[in-house]
Amino acid sequence: MALQAAATAVTAVLLTMLIQVSETTETCFCELRNLGNTFPDEKLQNVKSGATSCTQKITSEQISEIDVLLDQLHYRLLQLEGDIRVLEIEDDGDLFGAISLRIIEIELAEIMDLFVKLNTTNTVQQRLSANTAAQLVNLKSEMELLEKFDRTKVVLEKEKNKRLKRDLKDCEAKSEVTIAPPTITVPGNCPYGHLLNVTGPTSYITTQYGTSYPYGAWGRDPKPALGKEDWYFLVALTSSSVYANYVREYSSYSALILGVSAGDVTIASSNPTTNTVQGPNAVLYGDALYYNCYNSPSVCRFNMSARTVSTVALPAAAYNNKFSFCHLEACYIYTDIDMATDESGVWAVYSTPQNFGNVVLSKVEVDGGLTLGRTWNTSLHKRTATNTFMACGVLYGTRYVDKQNEEVFYSFDTVTGQERFDLGLRIKKTSTNVQSLNYNPRDRMLYMYSDSYVLAYQVTFD
Ligand SMILES: *[C@@H]1O[C@H](CO)[C@@H](O)[C@H](O)[C@H]1NC(C)=O
Ligand SMILES: *[C@@H]1O[C@H](CO)[C@@H](O)[C@H](O)[C@H]1NC(C)=O
Ligand SMILES: *[C@@H]1O[C@H](CO)[C@@H](O)[C@H](O)[C@H]1NC(C)=O
Ligand SMILES: *[C@@H]1O[C@H](CO)[C@@H](O)[C@H](O)[C@H]1NC(C)=O
Fold first, then answer.
1. pTM
2. Ligand 2 nearest atom to the CA of residue 199, by list position
């Protein structure tokens, strides 16, 4: 598609830098120099205002199909603008912002896709959108012109560099294996292949708290204690939508619907204090709650039976709202550290300034003491995702599409190191915001907490 070329041009042009890679057998360094930001932002603004005025005209004509398309186009342009803003912030020093470029590339492709649909929907509309069409065509040719300035092929170099780094890492990992074979389950070593679809929700209810607490987490323990196989847990952030000091349990799904709890297990006497839950992304695994503990870049494990807390620090992890999950209008508070479960156990998803606010993934080893396992740097910018979950050793990232839809757009395979930004799997919502999302490998369901509603989805693999 012609747009693909245009998008590639943007990618290259935005990062007009000199890159120098020198390799020896052991070292690899890059010198990056920004020669200026030549993205035709002004033109983009024109496109946006063109789309907005189209939306206004059409809405008054009550043509719903076109309305929906324009609405999507409008949101996409807003998102693109926001991401470009993030990119500019990242790009102002020595920071390397190529990550968001790939998101922008995908967004441009999607915008063009929407536009083509829009263009073919209605002949009346074609007159109205002519202005926007002209601008898009202009933008495209502008990008093609700018492409000629790309002599350095930065993106290609970056990809090569990344592959080298991964090969090195794999090599290191292999050599470690020969020294001390790991006894843990290998992540990603999973029989069901890749994520194909997310269907549902099969459940959407409010809890016994009603709509009092917009932030929280719920779900089922993938490795339940004996006798708790059918139980559900609920952690509502009862203090300022930030903190919680107890876990509420239900002995069945109907008990949850009816609001008849099996009781609360208290983590700390007051709220907030040392060891209270901070942020909504907590998970239950092996009858212990894993969460970001109060005012610290650490994972806490609360043993539900012994009622004791153990802690492990996430080195250099951002916390207290430095790198939260975000969408167009806002960020979700205190979502710096997202705990996740999958077939191989417990994971921590967070970010570090060293990785430029991009997601860092760590395996959390839970047998015996609480320790950190292997860590991966990804190129998913934390603020461009609304949440993440793990399934079969693969990290998935979601983003906001509109009030009714969320989208699984990103994946990172911990086995191959492969990253994708183009999954395009829709998740239907009943409410706008997603405060927490986690996968349970036992029933292969996704559990979502959304503006006080608790939702569950069936996940299918190929
Ligand atoms: C939109 O449709 C018109 C008429 O069919 C066509 O000439 C034009 O190239 C189309 N524009 C885009 C961007 O697809
Ligand atoms: C995914 O699920 C939706 C609705 O639940 C369905 O319409 C669609 O065909 C499914 N897609 C695939 C690839 O199975
Ligand atoms: C929780 O405590 C119980 C009792 O001390 C112990 O048997 C169990 O292994 C602990 N669970 C975890 C996950 O540490
Ligand atoms: C992640 O990136 C940081 C900064 O470049 C580096 O210090 C760290 O070693 C990397 N971690 C891994 C696991 O590659």
1. 0.64
2. 5
